[in-house]
Amino acid sequence: MTNQVLDLRSAIALLQQHDGQFIETNHPVDPNAELAGVYRHIGAGGTVKRPTRTGPAMMFNNVKGYPGSRILVGMHASRERAALLLGCEPSRLALHVGEAVKRPVAPVVVPASEAPCQEQVFYADDPDFDLRKLLPAPTNTPIDAGPFFCLGLVLASDPEDASLTDVTIHRLCVQERDELSMFLAAGRHIEVFRQKAEAAGKPLPVTINMGLDPAIYIGACFEAPTTPFGYNELGVAGALRQTPVELVQGVAVAEKAIARAEIIIEGELLPGVRVREDQHTNSGHAMPEFPGYCGEANPSLPVIKVKAVTMRHQAILQTLVGPGEEHTTLAGLPTEASLWNAIDAAIPGFLQNVYAHTAGGGKFLGILQVKKRQPSDEGRQGQAALIALATYSELKNIILVDEDVDIFDSDDILWAMTTRMQGDVSITNLPGVRGHQLDPSQMPDYSPSIRGQGITCKTIFDCTVPWALKSRFERAPFMEVDPRPWAPDYFTQLEGKTDPEIKA
Description:
Layout: H1 8-15, E1 22-25, H2 34-42, E2 57-60, E3 70-73, H3 79-86, H4 93-102, E4 108-109, E5 120-123, H5 131-134, E6 148-158, E7 161-176, E8 179-183, H6 189-199, E9 204-210, H7 214-220, H8 234-241, E10 246-249, E11 256-258, E12 263-275, E13 285-288, E14 294-296, E15 301-311, E16 316-319, H9 325-346, E17 351-356, E18 365-370, H10 380-391, E19 397-401, H11 410-419, H12 423-426, E20 427-434, E21 455-462, H13 488-494, H14 499-503
Parallel strand pairs: 1-2, 3-16, 4-10, 18-19, 19-21
Antiparallel strand pairs: 2-3, 5-15, 6-7, 6-9, 7-8, 8-15, 9-12, 10-11, 12-15, 13-14, 17-18, 20-21
Helix pairs in contact: 4-8, 4-9, 7-8, 9-10
């Protein structure tokens, strides 16, 4: 099953074989806030303002102002869908992706004749070229800084060593007919490349790859130390598919592009050039971020000068509605895989499963399911939590639960927290630790203990039963039966539906 998917179109074809995973509409939609407003009710999920739900991926075939364009949203906005696309069970995603990162398959270069992404070519030096008219970049809310490419996978190489290549999803705002602003978080490998090029007074060639095999997006979201400097994350997708990702030389810049992408923007990060993110709207906001709030517009961002756009015939622009379940999948699966590999290596057999909870956008909240097998395992749950916090620096809170708790069911997690935790002895606070700059509570005016923006207090909630008391905390032992003979129609209706739909 896994090898059936090699690009976005084959991924869509796979979803179309399964009820409830993909829908499309020909009803006209405005990419300016309306599209996101629609998908909020269809399947955005995550930390999106209620009402929302987890639902199917959705294709919009009639985009106002852009005849012939199509926009896909929500491809990754379901854990069940991610498992389907990667060929494993939802509960095994952390292990499956974790194995792939340990055994990468390097990408290969193919000739232009084998690269669907270059079926159409538009050069920016053409007087009629205008990125704003060519591609329907959406906004998520009416107060966004401008139209954004939300799933633009940027590929760049070290200007001092072209063998070092990195791919990362970045916030890209359309500013002019041939200019994008780019938000680069400190420490990202592409930011290191950009700084080197800027120090030498040279532009950094980049390609922005959109509309990809879902495995490529998931692999690209791994971070250090799991994927250290020099690790090409395209190898994760190669391992997941057991076939290398295909690259092609760009038509206008000295950089490679992903050959089976739907759309490629080729350009250069200009040295010494900065722009205010909301210069055309003065909204003060950037766009909705994964914690559930609209981030502030950045006053000074690097600029990409676009050189060309290439695309497939009838190209699909892929986007996401943030903050939503799609971000949890993209960020959360690499988080889970990283934690699984690190903890299992240190304490073999102790960790049973891990979930980067959607409430934390796949970054802030980790649920660790552990199994105490002997008296000496008491206390190892704290060790596991510390390993998790050291492995993924953006984690803020860890909840530890026993093996009989379903970590993918928030009710069960809260039950464990309610019946197996005492606040005075079960909570460990680690103040003054670097967190994530998009957490709005990590500000000095929120708490006097916070020394600067992005500093946080990390917390471990130990909701595991002490080893000596385990016999007093056994769950009520219901009889194991197959309920389908008693209610066949009910269970037929549930087939293919996600957990939130079942609970509704």
